[in-house]
Amino acid sequence: MMPTNQTKKFKIGNFVFQVTYPDDICPPKNFLLFETRNEDAVVDYSYCIERKTSIEFQEILESLKQTPVAVRDDLMVYRDSSLEMRLIRARGREDYYALYDEQTEAQAIIYLNEAMLNLLVLDTVFSSLFSLERRLLSKSGLVLHCAYLQYGQNAILFSAPSGVGKSTQASLWEKYKNGAVVNGDRALLLCQKDKWHAYGWPVCGSSEICHNTSLQIRAIVMLSQGKKNELSPLSSMQAFKELYSQITINSWDKKAALDSMELLEHLIKKIPVYHLSCTISKEAVDLLADELYPSMAYAEPDYFIKRSGGSQKMPIDAKEYFDLLKEQVTLGKEVSMIITGNSMSPFLEHGKDTIYFKKPDRKLHRGDMVFFQRENGKYVMHRLYKIKKEGCYFVGDNQTEIEGPLPEERIFAIITKVKRKGQILDKRSFWWFFFSHIWLHLVPFRPFLISLYQFIFKK
């Protein structure tokens, strides 16, 4: 008895497609993450999968008369005007397992060799049936070979040839920064309203980490292994060369190749691209974090929740978390968190020292450490530099630039004590007095004094 067919709708990025396939074929679990049950979603493309016996499949292959325009180990491509036909096989295998045949600009038939259906459990094999990179290009999308990391509300993409350590660097951010890997091998990059976002992809390589998550891209980092950690921004030409080699580009299709290059040029104009020569270390993470988030002077907490059904951590919105903390402070509670960022150094050390804060219960003074909210909504912890009629001015202990004025109403918490190098310090301690009084008078000399401090205490 021949199996019946079922139809499911999927959405990857902004590309909605439906697939009709026999009931006895089960898409891989990572592919099913992208199934959409939105009945109102308009279908961009339709695929129909048909099983063929080995004899029937061979007869179809023998009927192909045209000359292929591209031949690879895993692919043979034919073109008829704007439509494509692809013979697909797994790398290292002799026989082809599928023939992808575009009928129109919005529909394709996929013939499967039923003798090789067991291969479809593999993400790469199943996803290769649909020429997704071809379809997504028409949606202003590029597929990048990278480890896709979620950090707060942003995506950081680590790209390099296989074996360099993309997933390793991303996992270090999980360990030391509470980041979360969305995909260990691929990301879809989409330009929407002149902004670039990363989206999940149904293929994740050996990392086995695959999630359907979209985020605005903060940076792309091209990796290489090194004996020491060195970070440098890439010029437009360098970035283009490095990224071009890691983006899926169908070179046999001249228009598609030109469209890909045009999108890549736009991507480089909008997103910073770095080269990081690195070791497997916390120092590599800190080096990149300091570059990407130089003004992260607030204490960023462990604002993560567990993904349902697993132990993988998933960041929630940072502003949402701080809104909750602000609410707790408003209710009269004292809140504590580990500080992140270097702008309060050398008094407070990034990732190690803890601050305790609550709603101000007295008049504020010059030198107080306070939490305030900028006009753009960002939460910041700095020291009060001065209070004037027009508002309050602030400065970090590691900064020389004064910020302000801002209305005093934007200050919602005052730091009451800190845990520094394992010891609790408050206003009665020497170092508290030193940084809240003497250090404020030394703003112009701070670069020299901080260098001297590091030479004496950290050599």
How does CATH name the architecture of the largest domain? Answer: Ribbon
Q: Give the distance, in angstroms, between the N- and C-terminal Cα atoms.
A: 77 Å
CATH class of the largest domain, anyone? Mainly Beta
Determine the CATH superfamily of the largest domain.
Umud Fragment, subunit A
Helix content: 10-25%
Number of helices: 11
Number of domains: 3
Q: Please state the structural category.
A: alpha+beta
Write down the overall mean pLDDT: 88
CATH topology of the largest domain: Umud Fragment, subunit A
Using the alpha-carbon principal axes, give the shape.
elongated
What integer value in Å does the Rg equal? 27 Å
* Percentage of residues in strands: 25-35%
Count the beta strands.
26
The strand order across the widest sheet is: 1-2-3-8-7-6-5-4
Stretches where pLDDT falls below 50 for ≥5 residues? Answer: 295-317
Describe the protein in words:
Helices cover 23% and strands 34% of the residues. With 459 residues, it is α+β, with helices and mostly antiparallel strands. It folds into three domains: 5-130, no CATH class; 141-292, Phosphoenolpyruvate Carboxykinase, domain 3; 304-457, Umud Fragment, subunit A (Ribbon), CATH 2.10.109.10. The strands form four sheets. It has an eight-stranded mixed beta sheet with strand order 1-2-3-8-7-6-5-4. A hairpin with a 7-residue loop joins strand 23 (391-395) and strand 24 (403-406).
